[in-house]
Design brief:
The complex is a heterodimer of chains A (156) and B (735). By secondary structure, chain A is α+β, with helices and mostly antiparallel strands. Chain A folds into 2 domains: 3-78, Beta-grasp domain (Ubiquitin-like (UB roll), Roll); 81-155, DNA polymerase, domain 1 (Orthogonal Bundle), CATH 1.10.150. Chain A is built from 6 helices and 5 strands. Chain A is globular, with a radius of gyration of 15 Å. The mean pLDDT of chain A is 98. Mean pLDDT of chain B is 94; it is low at 1-32. Chain B is α+β, with helices and mostly antiparallel strands and 735 residues long. The longest helix of chain B has 28 residues, at 112-139. In chain B, 29% of the residues lie in helices and 23% in strands. Classes of the chains: A alpha+beta (156), B alpha+beta (735). Chains A and B meet through helix 1, helix 3, helix 4, helix 5 and helix 6 of A and helix 6, helix 8 and helix 18 of B.
Chain lengths: 156, 735
């Protein structure tokens, strides 16, 4: 049975219909609302490529039931900044050239944002711990750590 | 010469929506595989194959090589922009479209710069000469008085200039690539050799970049393939009653053992795939995992490739007063792209168009045509960047899945592989077994070197079997393993050498090339065994390597890495006391013995109690000739180090007698942030030398450098990759 759900994405109210409340939020965002910043990586909350924030907390949207997002505020990579008004993390990742394929970058930035929300001057160790459950297969880790540090300095 | 009819405009009007898929999100209109009317040439010997100057003053570069996350899109922009003095922001690259781009070979073997980039450079140099020739007529100035600058030809006499688009805009050059057209003097380079920022990174950070996973067509359906329960199982029966009840269900597609569900939306396809009850025959045709190497050794040899034969190695070994021998193995590895493979296909009027992240769209086109039983001209494959690709992973298979289902249903179809599809069903880097023997004389000189590799046979053409064709019982290629015989021959000068790749009749899983195929595994054995010899004769491992090299550039990378790492000569294992023990080891490679040189020093810590190895730091000296983009190069080297450290310490495909049991990242762990090494790099730039690639060579030094560092720390040799805690503890118990 089809049901309607309402939540906000990047401050804008969105309404979607689904016949399966267990459908992961990822599919609503990508296929129904047309976002492409969050990526499908595993569907198992193992890699982090799909990370978005739900009411201020990073979640793995590939495994987060869409029904649980009802009434919540969702923040995506597109929502934290853009070319016209970039977020320091986005700028820092560009300045450090912290990508190879960049498929993981969404998750890296959204997870790092959660870290910086609670820790304004993280050490390398803090950053590595915070990103321990975000996988990068190209081996861009060192640049990502530098980018997060740079962003923290920009935000200080 | 520059006055051919304007046929490109027609063509661009037809296909413009495709070439802008990188910048236009969401739905793009489709185009037929076969175009009516004149089409752009894709000839490798035509300037028009590679380059077009557009009427709006921009330039398009067409290349069969594709950016797999390595940054070659940016490097090609630099190469073309440099040669033609065109501002980089006015250059667009079209990659891997079988209708538009020349077939420059698959994007493999770290040859995108050395082959692909140099073909572009020569086409651009030819174009520049032609533009100067044309401007000479227009301006009435002798060619030698003309220069190029900022997308224009300029008179040195009076400063008058004419922009390229006024000379040729939207028209064909209609000239052959001139291999002798003068290229620029590297001393005058403005953008080549500079750390130009990657063209794709900003969009990727805004979340606006369109990966192949983001490509959509109007009316597109979503499919999921249901895989056999055991790898060689036969499909006995299908009950899709429950799937049919899922809203959005469209069809079940079955062809022999190929089974898929199609739905109107992606989640419905996933649910429907789960709801289908498929019954498969039992099958237990895989070898016992615990006895994999016995199985490899017992597999019949169908061919012996002698990759180096100097003197009489067997005889010299027999008469040597002292001999050493060791056996090495490297586990079955998965490519493990972070984003599972994905493709979209459309079947229209007997033509198949496929959007894919394939690293070899030109080969894929042939394979899909064969599978579907249609002509090559009826298939068009168009590259759209996917998740990082480290060899022939599942991209081509997802494309074949989509092609088959699109033809069966007559509708545009998107196939997104699951994590399990990727981990279990992408082709694997095959198991590698290596036997080494060496003979030493009374003075400790190596008089004989023998290496024997046991690796699967493969066809000559760089294509591996399409999974869909295999499951559906349709025409298919045999498998290709990548050139895994490479790097078995050695760069060192010994009087008697014989290296042989024994090609085996079969291997447990569908093989393909995996980043640094053969070179990673074979160089592990070679450089670790060489270290054993250096230790046996009481030589410092770096000095020992240098002593047996004649190649100056090879010697230089070793000397430079020794300086970078502040290497102190050592002639035996340190065997320091304590629970956590530090050590360092070295390794060297000259890629395929003909190009890129890399030397490494690895610093490790070994925990004697837990068996854990921590790779603390890698030092790399790297010479790939002329550097196009030093920052892009460093990014690749860093990636090689981390990626291969992961393979060396952790990675191994697990399986039972029926199927692969490493089905996700929990079952196939890779290196995570807390465990990544620091990386120090010394780049050797040689602007006047030919540029070579860097996508793979550094991977060849990582496993042996770590193994040799562990020996330095605790005095045990690790000869079986990955170096798991269990193996380290077992090795420590043996001393």
């Amino acid at each position: 049975m089809t049901q309607a759900l309402t939540f906000t994405v990047n401050g804008k109210t969105e309404r979607i219909e689904t016949d399966d409340p267990k459908m992961p939020l990822l599919y609503a965002l990508r296929n129904q609302l047309g976002f492409k910043s969050m990526h499908f990586g595993c569907g198992l909350a193992q890699c982090g490529a799909c990370t978005v924030h739900v009411s201020g907390k990073p979640v793995r949207s590939c495994s987060f039931p869409v029904a649980s997002a009802a009434g919540e505020e969702i923040l995506t990579l597109d929502g934290i900044g853009n070319a016209a008004k970039p977020h320091p993390l986005q700028l820092a990742f560009i300045e450090e050239q912290a990508a190879q394929c960049g498929y993981c970058a969404n998750g890296m930035i959204m997870q790092a944002k959660a870290l910086l929300d609670s820790n304004r001057s993280p050490s390398d160790r803090d950053i590595k711990r915070a990103l321990a459950n975000n996988l990068c297969r190209c081996g861009t880790h060192q640049r990502i750590v530098r980018a997060v540090k740079r962003a923290a300095k920009m935000m200080a | 010469m520059l006055n051919q009819p304007m046929n490109r405009r027609n063509f661009l009007a037809m296909s413009g929506s495709l070439v802008v898929t990188f910048t236009l999100p969401g739905a793009a209109s489709s185009a037929p595989a076969r175009q009516a009317g004149p089409v752009k040439t894709v000839a490798l010997d035509e300037v028009d194959g590679f380059l077009a100057v557009n009427a709006d003053g921009t330039m398009t570069v067409y290349t069969g090589k594709v950016d797999l996350g390595t940054g070659i899109r940016t490097a090609f922009t630099q190469i073309a922009g440099e040669e033609l003095d065109m501002p980089l922001n006015r250059i667009r690259i079209v990659e891997g479209d079988t209708l538009l781009t020349p077939d420059q070979g698959a994007t493999i073997s770290s040859i995108s710069i050395s082959r692909g980039g140099m073909e572009i450079r020569q086409a651009a140099a030819t174009a520049r000469a032609a533009l100067i020739g044309e401007a000479s007529k227009v301006l009435g100035v002798a060619p030698e008085q003309l220069a190029t600058e900022d997308g224009s030809v300029m008179s040195r006499q009076d400063g008058r200039r004419v922009p390229y688009e006024k000379l040729i805009g939207d028209r064909n050059f209609s000239i052959k690539v001139n291999a002798k057209a003068p290229v620029k003097d590297p001393k005058s380079y403005k953008v080549v050799g500079k750390p130009v920022a990657r063209v794709d990174i900003p969009e990727k950070m805004w979340g606006e970049f369109s990966f192949v996973h983001d490509f959509r067509l109007p009316g597109m359906l979503h499919a999921r393939v249901i895989r056999p329960a055991a790898m060689g199982a036969q499909l006995l029966s299908v009950d899709d009653a429950a799937a049919r009840r899922i809203p959005g269900f469209v069809a079940t597609v079955r062809r022999n053992n190929f089974l898929a569900v199609v739905a109107r939306d992606e989640w419905a396809a996933i649910r429907a795939a789960r709801a289908v009850k498929a019954s498969w025959s039992p099958w237990e045709g895989l070898p016992e995992k615990e006895r994999l190497w016995d199985h490899v050794r017992a597999t019949p040899v169908v061919r012996r490739d002698v990759t180096l034969n100097t003197g009489a190695a067997e005889e010299a070994l027999k008469s040597a007063p002292r001999t050493l021998q060791a056996t090495f193995d490297f586990a079955i590895n998965t490519h493990g792209s972070l984003g599972p493979s994905c493709a979209v296909a459309e079947w229209k009027d007997g033509n198949l168009t496929c959007w894919t992240a394939s690293q070899q769209t030109h080969e894929l086109r042939k394979q899909v045509a064969e599978m579907l039983g249609i002509g090559r001209d009826n298939v068009r494959c168009i590259f759209i960047e996917g998740s990082g690709c480290y060899g022939r992973n599942g991209n081509e298979d997802a494309a074949a899945d989509a092609a088959l289902i699109a033809k069966e249903t007559g509708q545009p179809v998107r196939v997104q592989w699951s994590r399990e599809d990727e981990h279990v069903w992408e082709p694997k880097g095959p198991p590698t077994l290596l036997d080494y023997r060496a003979g030493l004389d009374q003075n400790g000189n190596v008089v004989s070197w023998l290496a024997d590799a046991y690796v699967p046979e493969g066809q000559k053409v760089s294509r591996t079997t399409l999974l869909a064709a295999d499951l559906a019982g349709l025409p298919k290629d045999p498998a290709h393993t990548g050139s895994i015989h490479q790097q078995l021959a050695i760069p060192y000068v010994f009087p008697n050498i014989r290296t042989v790749a024994h090609r085996l009749a079969e291997t447990p899983f569908r093989p393909s090339w995996i980043r640094t195929p053969g070179r990673m595994q074979n160089n592990f054995g070679t450089e670790a065994f060489l270290d054993e010899i250096a230790h046996a004769v009481g030589a410092d491992p770096i000095e020992f390597r240098i002593r047996h090299l004649k190649d100056k550039r090879g010697i230089e990378v070793l000397e430079r890495v020794a300086r970078l790492a502040d290497w102190q000569p050592r002639t035996g294992a340190q065997r320091r006391s304590g629970t956590v023990v530090a050590g360092r080891g070295t390794a060297y490679i000259k890629y395929e013995l003909v190009r890129t040189y890399v030397a490494a020093v690895a610093d490790v810590e070994v925990n004697r109690r837990t068996g854990e190895i921590r790779v603390v730091r890698f030092h790399i000296a790297h010479d790939c000739g002329q550097i196009i983009n030093p920052d892009g190069l460093k990014n690749q080297i860093e990636g090689n180090v981390i990626h291969t450290t992961s393979r060396t310490l952790l990675e191994e495909v697990q399986f039972n007698r029926s199927t692969i049991t490493s089905r996700d990242w929990a079952g196939y762990p890779i290196l995570r942030f807390p465990d990544i090494p620091e990386i120090a790099i010394d780049l050797i730039d040689r602007p006047t030398e030919r540029p070579w690639g860097a996508g793979e060579p550094t991977s060849g030094v990582v496993p042996p450098a770590i193994s040799n560092a562990v020996f330095d720390a605790v005095g045990v040799r690790l000869r079986s990759a990955p170096f798991t805690r269990e193996k380290v503890l077992a090795a420590l118990r043996r001393v």
